[in-house]
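Teaching assistant's notes for section 4

Start the section by putting this record on the projector. Ask students to predict, before seeing the second block, whether Lachesin-like isoform X1 will look compact or extended. Collect guesses on the board.
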Amino acid sequence: MAYGLPYGMASRNFALCALIVVFLYTSLGQTPPKSEVLPEFLALLENHTVTQGRDVSFTCVVNHLQSYKVAWIKSDSRAILAIHTHMVAHNPRLSVTHNGHNTWKLHVTNVQPNDSGTYMCQVNTDPMRSQTGHMKVVIPPDIMDLDNTADMLTTKENGDLLLRCRATGNPEPVVIWRREDGRNITLRNENSVKRTARTFEGEQLHLRGIQRQEMGSYLCIASNGVPPSVSKRYYVNVRFKPLIKVSNQLVAAPVDSDVLLQCYVESSPKALNTWYRNNGVKLLADEKHDISEVTINDYAYQLNLTVRHLDKSDFGTYTCSAENAFGKMEGSIRLQELQISKPTTVSTRNTETIEKHTWHKQTEKKGKKHSYVLDKESDLIPKNVGHTTPMSRRNLSSALPNIANKSRISAFPAPAPAPAHSAPTQLGAQKPPFNGVKSLRDSRLCHVGLVVIVLMILIHD
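Reveal the predicted structure now:
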């Protein structure tokens, strides 16, 4: 009697057990034995702040990966982007690279705002291991077009204007206003209280009671720390009636010269400018007249009229006229002839004759004034006395008082003349011979006195 299962049946059971063991081994093959070294990350997943449009990549370094797989997941949306080097997400801007060892990279090109968020590098262990990194997409500022037309930036003088500048970006931009020419911005409140500022912060700039000096270009500048900053230019127009100022209302010039006539004009919009004569004739640019304009600022300029080779018919009144849609203004300039007298020339010979004649008259007057009793005998003076040298005249003048005094005291012969370099007398010290008239007169008196003294000595003897 035989015991046990038939041989065929035992073979089938053995095969079934073998299949179950193989299945279990295959199914549980991903679970490592307790002695297996698990994968580990060598570095943290970095965070990125990237400007829109740039490229960025996350790097994940894993050691001891063995048969495990690396996957990339966007955490906030729980979307699987890639497993190993196989892309799952259908996004052409995403890609994954592997260096063949332990480094995986997730590349994002042309970064867009919706790419911001948390990214995860994951290894499918049990439990799962992962690292996360955050990407922040920043956007440079941009100024929106609010369809401001030229009419919206134009007003009459003393009117109001509202300038709006809306900026976008991430982070939110700061908007400031300033004038393009660097001058201060004039701000007025509802009560017309005025203040000035270099810059103004805010998306809206309200210009109240605006004046002609405030017209020009204003800049709206938006910045948020992400380069580049952007700006937009707003041109403010202020309309008003022309104004004319004439600094020189009366101009004189000689015949055959050129003369420049000027009128200062303020006008917005720019006026139609014309020059007229006093008879109402409009002047045009030609060989006789040169007409030009010199711009001073956005609303002011100088009108110039040059009249060449003046003749008698050119003198009279000239009128400058400026006219625009808000009114008309005129200014007048009177041009008159400037008479230039010809200088008279006197010859050198005539001048010398006049000076000599004057000198002789002064000599005669002073001679009479300083004459003494001896004037009656002046006829005894030799004719060549007037031609003595200055040294001789000075010596004779010095000797005269001493000789006269001694002749009155005694009857001895007259002493020798005083030395040529004797000190001047008190009379000479009081009245120095500063001119030729006095010196000549003193010389004559000395000779007369000397002759009289000699005669007296001879008679006495």
